[in-house]
Every structure is written in structure tokens, then in C-alpha cells.
Amino acid sequence: MKSHCYTQGKFLGYYFGLETFLATHPLCVPGNCFINGETQSLWIWDAINRKWVDSNRLDPPFQGLVENPQTFDPKPKPGIKAAYLYFAPKSGTVTFEHLQNADGENGISVTVSGCSIVILHWDGDYWSTEVIPMENNIEELKTKYEHDISELEETTDKLTPIKIPVKSYGDDGEVIFENLQALERLLVDAKIAQKEVVVASGSEMTPASLSYDDYFTSFVLSFFGADKRQHEITFSVEPDGFKIAKQEAFAHSEFIKAKAFSDTADYPEI
Q1: 20 to 30 A Cα–Cα from 239, which one of 136, 140, 208, 219?
Q2: Which residue has the higher pLDDT, 232 or 181?
Q3: Reported pTM
């Protein structure tokens, strides 16, 4: 068999982002690679151009992962380059039954020592292989991946605003809330988590501003409601529960004249 195999490189682990990886591995060896959690792909050291490249953007282009070497039959097109990856879980010989070697014979075999990545290169005429040993085990990679996903979910949660549900608006501008005790918890959570607040009435949501005293005993919620009024509602924490201490509602023109806020220029006039 005349396909050739390079084994000088090695798998360097899992890192979230190229900068994080380079902080640990500033030097590179041909055949080195790592999994980049930011792009969800394998990155490989390009020894010719002296740079790290995303396997999803390789030349030849990365076509996909091999699940079963015995049934893998890609049928590549002559003259068109392609590349595939296979993760070998343990030591042994891996045979790709349907790949033709340079002699036109089916069956290309590679021997791996421990958990390894096998890269299959189709240069347009024949196949070649590259084996990259993995120093990290699969469970370690899975743990790091799940950690990054967890951090991403936490970041997404922080960016999700607190939704304040409004039951209805009165003709006199009074705002009626679904549940005052639940509302207290939402307002406290918004300030502790430093989240944005939106007021929801049915399917309509409006940004709101929230201010409070140092002891979390008084909150002021300001928003432009679905009734086309500017509302300013003061809540207070009393010995007998959370209550609305004061409600004010302004038509837009009245609100501008009062100059209660400086950021109402974009509100539509009624």
C-alpha cells in the first residue's frame, strides 16, 4: 500500500477560543491539533502557511466525520480534494474497507496507539492518512465541553430580561398587576442579577426602568405602557406585605411638559 501516514503531531486538548489555546501552546508542530469550543470544530496547524486553521475551512475542504470505517464509502470525485475525520477510541488497527490505495486495491489500514484522530485526505487521485494521538481522554473533553456550554447558558440567562406581567390598564391610567407578591420577587431578582426589565401586556413587551433605595424597601418602575401612557409606579415593602404606594400616568405630551424623564423623545405621541 502506497498511502502515507504522518504521526509526528498530537492532539493538544480542548480550548474555548484560539487565544486561550495559544496562551498554553505558543509553539507548534506539524500535525498538532485541538478542539476549539468557540467554533465547535477541530483546528489543525498548517505547517506550510505557519498558522492555525479551522478544519471546517480546510483545503481540501472538510466533508464530515466517519462513524464506521467498515461501511464508510464516500465515492470522491476525481480531481476534487476532500478530507474526513475519524476518532479512534483505542489502540489497534483501523481499516477503511472501501478506500482505494494507490495500487487501486480496496482497504486502507492505519495503526493507532491509544485514542487518536485519523485524518483521511483525498487529493483527487488517491487517499492518504494522518494519525494524531490524543493525550486527553474523551471524558475529560466532554467535561470541558459541558463546562463551556454551562457558562454560555449562564451568560444567555444574564442577558434575558425580567418580564413584569400586567393584567390590565384602567381608563384612569391605573395599572393592575397579576400578583404583587410575585412581582416583589421579580423586582428584587432584577436588581440583584443586574438584569433589564420589560413590562408585558399580552404579546406586547415594553422596556422599563427600575430604581430602588439602598434597603430594597422602595421600588420605582417607569415604562411606556400598551395604553399609550407613560407610567411611574412606586412600590413599598410594608410590614403587612408588598404594596403599590403611588401610581402616576401621563399622556405623552403631558409627560414631556413635566420633564420627568429625559429619554422620552422616541415615544409616539397620542
Answers
A1: 208
A2: 232
A3: 0.39
Query: ∠ CA(251), CA(254), CA(197), 5° rounding?
Result: 55
- Cβ pair 102, 48 in contact under 8 A: no
The reply to whether omega before 207 is within 30° of 0 (cis) is: no
Per DSSP, helices labelled H in the chain are 18-24, 138-159, 180-192, 252-258
Q: How far apart are CA 231 and CA 250, in angstroms?
A: 7
The Cα-based distances of 146 to 101, 143, 233 in angstroms read 39, 5, 43
Tracing cell 466525520 back to the chain, one arrives at: 65
How far apart, in whole angstroms, are the C-alpha atoms of residue 192 and residue 206? 21
Q: Euclidean distance between the first and final Cα of the chain, in Å? A: 82
Q: Give the length of the chain.
A: 270
Question: Which grid cell is 159?
Answer: 442577558
pLDDT digit string, tens, across residues 206-250:
888 888 887 768 899 999 888 888 999 999 988 888 899 999 988
* DSSP assigned state of 164: E
DSSP designation for 57: G
d(CA 52, CA 34): 10
